[in-house]
Design brief:
This protein has about 325 residues and is mostly helical. It is about 65% helix and about 5% strand. α3 packs antiparallel against α5 and α5 packs antiparallel against α6.
Length: about 325
């Protein structure tokens, strides 16, 4: 095959262009720290990295969901601890109410104190989180779940379904108990009534039973009134004990969920690290290899320039 001066010129120019392209590409890798900067650099690795990136993004979403769930459950457990304290205080008061030497004035004083405990419980039952959502309202977070009527009775008007949240790929968790489950339910093994009657599950009704008894005059009353008073205080005491057991059961469940969220966070962190390592193995630059290549390509480019310069002064007619 015959070679013309223009062909030799073009081949040298192509060699320079190719050397420069390789050198520039390696320089970009060193600048970005990435071996794959565009899909064409390594289509298979780029495709796999995209899939891993999507998995990592999903993992981050679950992490955010767990943070939200942890905040909700932490707020709930704080309120439940306060509810426990109030119930225990009310129990202590009912023990005092059983003292047969109390005067009507003493019992009225206890009634006033017990009413304040009821008010505290109602306020706690209508607690809100930092965003103004009611903790114990289920999905009806915009309105107070417990409403007090003019006669003092308290009813639940919140949602019937507890709030749930997807906290991992295969784990959905209840992140907010309904008020009815906390303040108007009985847990397994509750204390039954001696006469076989229904046990009171509504803590507010329980307190109303005690309040009615404490505000009923006992001095100079006949035996029927005294017996009814003793029975009412006894029923209220059993009701508070059952309500406390239920609140403690809910609190224990919340604690278990918080522990599970911690474990899921640890797994999520490990998963994120593994994905990051896999992405790095696919697209990150091998610094030692890239630096070596960069130096070699720079030498090759300089040699190509020198050759091209020398060829410029030559032709097929040169002797």
């Amino acid at each position: 095959m015959r070679l013309s001066t223009s062909m030799i010129y073009q081949r040298n120019l192509d060699a320079i262009s190719e050397s420069y392209s390789k050198w520039e590409n390696t320089g970009q890798q060193l600048a970005t720290g990435k071996r794959v900067n565009v899909p064409s650099d390594d289509p298979i690795a780029a495709s796999q990295a995209i899939k891993l990136g999507q998995s990592q993004a999903l993992n981050s979403q679950y992490s955010a969901a767990r943070t939200s769930a942890t905040n909700s459950l932490s707020a709930e457990t704080t309120v439940l601890e306060q509810v426990t304290d109030v119930i225990q205080s009310a129990q202590t008061l009912l023990v005092q109410a059983g003292d047969g030497t109390l005067s009507d004035q003493d019992r009225q004083s206890l009634a006033t104190q017990l009413q304040s405990y009821k008010d505290q419980l109602l306020n706690l039952a209508n607690s809100q989180d930092g965003n103004g959502n009611y903790l114990f309202a289920g999905y009806k977070t915009n309105s107070a779940p417990f409403v007090e009527a003019e006669d003092g009775s308290v009813s639940y008007s919140g949602g019937g379904q507890a709030m749930t949240q997807q906290v991992d790929a295969s784990r959905s968790m209840t992140v907010g108990d309904t008020g009815s489950a906390v303040f108007m339910s009985l847990t397994a093994g509750y204390t039954t009534e001696p006469d076989g009657g229904d046990s009171e599950s509504n803590i507010f009704n329980t307190l109303d039973i005690a309040l009615k008894a404490l505000t009923t005059p006992q001095q100079d009353a006949d035996s029927t009134v005294t017996v009814d008073y003793t029975a009412a205080i006894g029923k209220a005491s059993r009701g508070l004990s059952n309500s406390l057991d239920n609140v403690l059961a809910v609190q224990s469940s919340v604690g278990s969920k918080l522990n599970e969220l911690d474990n899921l966070d640890s797994l999520g962190t490990s998963r994120n690290t593994l994905i990051s390592d896999n992405i790095s193995a696919l697209v990150d630059v091998d610094w030692y290899q890239a630096i070596s290549d960069y130096s070699q390509q720079q030498v090759a480019l300089q040699a190509a320039y020198s050759t091209f310069t020398a060829m410029q002064s030559m032709s097929l007619f040169s002797q």
